[in-house]
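In this section we walk through a basic example: taking a raw amino acid sequence and producing a predicted 3D structure, encoded as discrete structure tokens. The instruction is simple. Fold the sequence below.
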Amino acid sequence: MTARDPIGSKPDGPRITVEVPVLRVGAGSSDYEGLGRFADSLRKPQGLHMTLLHVGILDDLAADITAWTKGLSTPEKTLPEIASWLTELPVLQGFLGKSDKLIPLGGGRLRGLHVEVPQEVHDYQALLVQGLHVLLDELGLDNIEDFILSSPALGYRSPRWLPHIAVGRARSRHEPAMEIAPVAIEFGDSRIRNREALPLP
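The resulting token sequence is shown next.
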């Protein structure tokens, strides 16, 4: 599932995601820095990552769930359950991917590398989404697919996951996808961003 890329506004709390860190783009730093020809404000290499599942700000997600269930599932109940589910997720081992295309993200405000990843990465991401469905069902939600696509906290634009790495700002809102020289990308093990912000399960 593809989440909206937050731009401009500061979140009211840490965003929780399941992601894989980028360890290396191409043969070295010069390969990544070369992308500066196509994007402004290139992100620092050590901060690059690929999101597998966007969970969002937990307090906002709990509020969305409370509203959807008309108060039956309260934050006191949902937050520990969400935290427990996240911390018990299996770890996806590091892997290699590749990219030969820059694509628009965030409504055209960002540029990102479209990444080809092994099938096991798609399978793991599908497992995350399936697990999210089960979790929401256990929390008393109905029409779960509708909830996922309409929850402002989750912030999904599309039910289809597009493997990508945001690398910088687009120079204009109308820049199309662009072919680039192929680069190999090394990813580390999956992790929970802002794990320390999770409530105790």
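Looking at the output, two observations stand out. Residues 67 and 73 are 9 Å apart (CA to CA). The radius of gyration is 17 Å. In the next section we compare this with other chains.
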